[in-house]
């Protein structure tokens, strides 16, 4: 079945994950409806509830800190209520018991309406407190893993330093064997595992936790595809030491490492983003992640189907390039009609008529897309980045949702990619009629004059020289702030990663650029 197991680490990652699972639920079809192009068995697992009822729940492990789950509990409508802790205590102790309860978190109005089968109210950044406030799916109890050692937003023991995450994983793994306890039950349910997909914050302690988890997982699973989506908070000066460690440690173990900023430096006018709302910023990240991985969960009968392994082969291009960047543009599907036939290569790919010039052959369409999800090196110094020389693209996967191009254009692009003697970037293009679903739990951050129910997305995942430019900027700053014991191995490792993106490409003139 080519299953994919998703691991989520931390608040931002779980906001992204909640949007992801809500979108997957929207692809289900019922009764006489046409069969969904998405193969649900890839991301969902069949099972049985306590009363024998058949269930279908995400293949997911959700890690977060104490107090971070809101009203989400391991028990739910599918798997029954948990035993009363007061009753358990009284059974185990013959004497008097004194139960101290913390204040109960009140269920969101949105969840109350879902439970009652009513149409839920419109959400806003003010009404979303936790990622569970707008969750629309039921999880298996084993999917929920609360780490009691740290509390969300604690001032006394903040979960921020990269080494803190490493230490927490080591202590928990020594006590419980986390992979055996948490991951193995999901692995044993898979007939033909396609990949492990990990979503994590990369600029706090979750980066260290994820790196250790991935290292242990490699011992168990060998060469299984492992993709890591590293989330970095934009709009503020980042924790460069954490970012440097995540890039070096995680990318050396992952099959692909894709950093995604919460807040791009430049946003087109059609994006209305509240940068202080994780509900909003995770929505932008999810559209990029969900669209780029769409080909990996389509049915075998669908055109444009691919696998994680195929994409890795394309992007590495016989090299060792494991870090990629995402660019995208988004439109109201109605605006695409009439553009693909004869005008696709010249059309305006922006909502509200926003345009941004043309692009050269080396840009492989990344410059034609107006949302760059790669965290910017300008944020590392607090300065606005300068425009560097034209970015060289080594390889690129294009994922198009909606008719951005004609079938002939798609075919020409893919034929050129298979030319062994061709010059320029290796590009593969996958186009699907399946649009991104804007469900009621998803914020209306993309405006085109009217409220939209579906989005046409043109996204690219690329290995480019701009990856090396950013990592060199990270390395320069890390060299000045990281202790001497760690500095040499870390900085030399970052330089080694950069060289993979510069070999055979004249980079002497742009190695000092910070864009």
Q: Care to describe what's here?
A:
A 6-stranded parallel sheet has the order 5-4-1-6-7-8, sandwiched between helices. The longest helix is centred in the middle third of the chain and has 17 residues, at 205-221. The protein has helices spanning 11-26, 85-92, 109-115, 162-176, 178-187, 205-221, 240-251, 278-292, 308-316, 340-343, 378-381, 407-417, 465-481, 484-500; strands at 3-9, 44-48, 54-58, 60-66, 144-151, 193-201, 225-232, 256-261, 325-331, 371-372, 393-401, 426-432, 436-437, 454-464. It has one domain (3-500): 3-Layer(aba) Sandwich (Rossmann fold), CATH 3.40.50.1440. The chain is globular, with a radius of gyration of 23 Å. It is of the alpha/beta class. A hairpin with a 5-residue loop joins strand 2 and strand 3. Residues 341-363, 381-387 and 507-515 have low confidence and may be disordered.
Which descriptors would you attach to this protein?
mitochondrion; six-stranded mixed β-sheet; Tubulin nucleotide-binding domain-like protein; 18% strand; 31% helix; Misato_II_tubulin-like; disordered C terminus; Rossmann fold
Distance between the termini: 42 Å
Instruction: State the secondary-structure class.
Output: alpha/beta
CATH architecture grouping: 3-Layer(aba) Sandwich
Strand content: 15-25%
State the helical fraction: 25-40%
Tally the helices: what do you get?
14
Average pLDDT over all residues: 85
Give me the CATH fold name: Rossmann fold
Q: Give, in spatial order, the strands making up the sheet with the most strands.
A: 5-4-1-6-7-8
CATH class: Alpha Beta
């Amino acid at each position: 079945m080519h299953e994919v197991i998703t691991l989520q680490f931390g608040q931002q990652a779980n906001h992204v994950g909640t949007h992801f699972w809500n979108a997957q639920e929207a692809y289900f079809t019922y009764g006489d409806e046409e069969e969904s192009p998405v193969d649900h068995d890839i991301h969902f697992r069949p099972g049985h509830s306590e009363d024998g009822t058949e269930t279908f729940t995400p293949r997911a492990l959700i890690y977060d800190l104490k107090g971070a789950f809101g009203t989400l509990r391991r028990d739910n409508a599918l798997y029954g209520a948990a035993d009363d802790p007061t009753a358990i205590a009284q059974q185990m102790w013959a004497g008097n018991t004194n139960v101290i309860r913390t204040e109960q978190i009140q269920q969101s109005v949105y969840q109350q309406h879902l439970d009652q089968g009513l149409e839920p109210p419109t959400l806003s950044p003010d009404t979303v407190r936790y990622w569970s406030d707008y969750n629309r799916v039921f999880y298996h109890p084993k999917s929920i893993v609360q780490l009691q050692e740290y509390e969300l937003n604690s001032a006394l023991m903040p979960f921020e330093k990269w080494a803190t995450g490493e230490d927490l994983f080591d202590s928990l793994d020594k006590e419980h064997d986390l992979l055996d306890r948490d991951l193995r039950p999901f692995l044993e349910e898979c007939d033909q595992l396609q990949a492990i997909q990990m979503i994590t914050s990369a600029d706090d302690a979750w980066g260290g936790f994820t790196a250790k988890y991935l290292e242990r997982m490699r011992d168990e699973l060998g060469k299984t595809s492992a993709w890591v989506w590293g989330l970095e908070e934009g709009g503020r000066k980042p924790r460069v030491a954490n970012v440097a460690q995540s890039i070096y440690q995680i990318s050396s173990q992952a099959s692909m490492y894709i950093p995604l900023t919460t807040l791009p430096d430049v946003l087109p006018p059609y994006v209305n983003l509240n940068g202080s709302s994780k509900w909003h910023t995770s929505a932008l990240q999810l559209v990029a992640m969900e669209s780029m991985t769409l080909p990996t969960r389509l049915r075998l009968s669908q055109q444009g189907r691919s696998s994680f392994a195929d994409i890795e082969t394309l992007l590495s291009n016989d090299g060792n390039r494991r870090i990629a960047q995402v660019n995208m543009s988004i439109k109201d599907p109605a605006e695409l009609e009439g553009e693909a036939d004869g005008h696709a290569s010249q059309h305006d790919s922006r909502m509200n008529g926003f345009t941004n010039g043309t692009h050269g052959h080396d840009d492989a369409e990344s410059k034609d897309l107006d949302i760059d999800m790669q965290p910017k090196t300008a944020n590392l110094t607090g300065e606005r980045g300068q425009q560097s020389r034209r970015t060289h693209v080594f390889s690129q996967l294009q994922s198009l949702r909606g008719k951005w191009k004609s079938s002939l254009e798609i075919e020409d692009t893919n034929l050129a990619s298979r030319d062994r003697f061709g010059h320029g970037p290796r590009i593969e293009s996958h186009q699907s009629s399946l649009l991104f679903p804007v469900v009621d739990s998803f914020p209306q951050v993309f405006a085109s004059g009217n409220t939209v129910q579906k989005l046409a997305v043109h996204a690219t995942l690329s290995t480019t020289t701009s990856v090396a430019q950013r990592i060199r900027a990270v390395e320069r700053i890390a060299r000045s702030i990281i202790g001497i014991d760690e500095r040499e191995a870390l900085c030399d490792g970052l330089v080694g990663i950069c060289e993979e993106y510069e070999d055979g490409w004249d980079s002497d003139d742009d190695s000092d650029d910070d864009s």
